[in-house]
Specification:
The complex is a heterodimer of chains A (270) and B (296).
Chain A lengths: L5 H28 L17 H7 L2 H34 L5 H13 L2 H16 L8 H25 L4 H8 L4 H30 L2 H6 L7 H9 L6 H31 L1
Helix pairs in contact in A: 1-11, 2-11, 3-6, 3-8, 3-10, 4-6, 6-8, 7-8, 8-11
Chain B lengths: L1 H11 L2 H8 L1 H30 L3 E2 L6 E2 L5 H8 L1 H35 L2 H16 L2 H12 L4 H6 L11 H25 L3 H9 L4 H30 L2 H6 L6 H11 L1 H24 L7
Antiparallel strand pairs in B: 1-2
Classes of the chains: A mainly alpha (270), B mainly alpha (296).
Chain lengths: 270, 296
């Protein structure tokens, strides 16, 4: 046991308490401000009302932005799930020249700052593809998101594959199953929870992404973070932004909950 | 007999599978080709084109880029005082964020792993992880609400006669710390949990007090985790510019300047993008020499 004096313990508890206050005060101030009756956020809140929630519910730009966010995140998730899984299989099952380079390539899109990736994509789209007559538009945003989401699926699936027993696949092949049949009936059921967890992380990452989106979104198209960004750009924070932000906080509880469930399912699988 | 022929027939009916099973290289190629084509074709090519663009010219009147080869953009980025100041400022901000994250992550980790009761520990683990998911922009605008002139901080501190500094570099550092703290806290906590308890017993048997034990036993053992966490806090802070835009007042970071130039003068934006890449590569090389990256 680590024995610490009472004073040291008190200091530690004080630091932890301070950290919790530091981490949660801003979120509470934000959530409470979503019920601020005044149009402009502030503190202390003079009077509370749900009017901005009612307003946000039927406000078309918010609905459009939410739909765009879901579309982009879904597209990025699907592409990243396929590519990330393929990467995981290649890195697990084979030894080849340049393997460590491939590893770096997978991590690179998330390791480099978003601004660099965003500028790189934007530069390619507007200074190279556009002059050549190719306009990716909405799809360009999905391409960029998918690229940095690959690593999420890869990490999860790869970690699971490493613990898997390869003889099951061999047995399946010996019994006459084709590669696809083995994958479908033997391999996939073994890593599907990790696959789902990775896909979920990819979705969440894309849904939350701002910087790369700023540089790759076609004109006039807003995702939810982009909409928030535009509204906050004005001098004072409008209370309706806090409603949307509160919804984002609430939505973020879904992946936390699901990933906990998936982690438990993974424990049971073992 | 009929069963036998059936089996044989079935086996022969999978020519692709049998072919692929025998040829590892073809199999590897067919698995690796699609994702590699994507990463290289989409991302690496884009980065390469960015590097090329950094040597191009821009028409000052139409803002159209034209191919060429000049080193003016790089020269500008490396000699104009405002650009140099911004690079240094960003570097210092990223280092400050990293230092603050370490300063708080270590006591938190020690408390969680070695002192707190199990239920407190689990609660804290969730409490630390939750804000990680709460949305990047959400956290920035939440900080903005707290530290604005008529905000929560000034209201709460008014009885003590304290006023916040307003949107400025200290608040940017605080916001970035808020954003990236979990990336430091979680690996440090995991590392402290993995320290076997008998090391503490041995240390105290040999007469070390709690503080000495933390300094001489805990610190060396968690250094790799601290470095791994610092890679995140450092590089994420280095590339950020929205925290500066919304909580920094007039504070500019490397990202701010890149973002301003991407439409007006793409070659300068491209050249300036190489600065954060350079800083991060240096940081990674230093971190690698300590041998802590293998554990990431």
């Amino acid at each position: 046991m680590l024995r610490l004096s009472r004073l040291t313990k008190a200091i530690l508890i004080a630091i932890v308490g301070f950290l919790l206050i530091f981490m949660y005060t801003p979120l509470f101030v934000l959530i409470l401000n979503s019920f601020n009756e005044s149009q402009i956020s502030g503190w202390p809140i003079e009077s509370f009302s749900t009017k901005w929630w009612v307003f946000a519910k039927d406000y078309q730009p918010i609905r459009d932005a939410l739909l765009n966010s879901v579309l982009v995140a879904t597209g990025a998730m699907i592409i990243a799930s396929i590519l990330g899984t393929l990467f995981a299989f290649a890195m697990k099952g084979f030894d080849f020249f340049g393997k460590s380079t491939v590893n770096i390539l997978i991590v690179l899109p998330i390791a480099l700052p978003g601004i660099v990736s965003g500028v790189a994509f934007s530069n390619t789209y507007s200074n190279f593809l556009s002059p050549a007559g190719i306009n990716l538009g909405f799809f360009g945003m999905i391409v960029a998101h998918a690229t940095f989401c690959i690593v999420m699926v890869f990490n999860n699936v790869f970690a699971r594959l490493r613990r898997m027993n390869p003889s099951l696949q061999e047995a399946s092949a010996d019994l006459g199953a084709g590669l696809w049949q083995t994958f479908r009936l033997v391999t996939f059921p073994q890593f599907r929870t990790s696959f789902a967890a990775g896909a979920l992380l990819a979705f969440a990452l894309s849904f939350d992404e701002v910087v790369v989106t700023i540089f790759t979104a076609p004109p006039g198209v807003d995702t939810l973070p982009l909409w928030i960004l535009k509204e906050v750009g004005r001098p004072n924070q409008a209370s309706v932004v806090n409603v949307v932000a509160t919804v984002v906080i609430l939505l973020s509880l879904i992946p936390v909950y699901v990933s906990q469930r998936l982690a438990r399912a993974q424990e049971e699988e073992r | 007999m009929t069963q036998m022929t059936q089996v044989v027939a079935k086996k022969q009916s999978k020519p692709i599978s049998s072919y692929l099973l025998r040829r590892t290289k073809v199999r590897l190629l067919s698995i690796l080709a699609p994702p590699m084509t994507w990463i290289v074709g989409v991302y690496i090519v884009s980065l390469f084109l960015l590097l090329i663009t950094a040597f191009w010219n821009v028409d000052p009147f139409t803002s159209l880029v034209s191919p060429g080869f000049n080193l003016e953009n790089f020269k500008m980025v490396l000699t104009v005082p405002a650009y140099i100041a911004t690079s240094i400022r960003t570097l210092l901000i990223a280092l400050a964020v990293t230092a603050i994250c370490i300063f708080f992550a270590v006591p938190l980790g020690i408390y969680m792993a070695k002192i707190a009761k199990p239920w407190v520990r689990n609660l804290l683990a969730v409490a630390i992880t939750l804000p990680l998911w709460a949305g990047y922009l959400v956290k920035i605008i939440a900080m903005r609400l707290v530290f604005t002139e008529e905000g929560f901080f000034n209201w709460a501190m008014a009885p003590f006669g304290i006023r916040g500094p307003g949107f400025s570099i200290p608040i940017v550092i605080l916001t970035l710390t808020y954003l990236w703290f979990p990336y430091m806290a979680l690996p440090v906590y995991t590392a402290i949990r993995q320290i076997p308890p008998n090391l503490f017993d041995a240390s105290s048997d040999m007469g070390a007090k709690g503080f000495t034990t933390i300094y001489r036993v805990v610190f060396p053992l968690i250094t790799p985790a601290v470095i791994a966490g610092s890679v995140f806090t450092f590089s994420l802070s280095l590339g950020d510019y929205l925290a500066a835009r919304f909580t920094g007042g007039a504070t500019q970071m490397i990202g701010s300047i890149i973002a301003q130039n991407i439409n007006l003068n793409p070659p300068v934006a491209a050249a300036y993008s190489m600065i954060p890449i350079f800083f991060i590569v240096i940081y990674l090389m230093v971190a690698r020499r300590t041998g802590s990256l293998e554990r990431m």
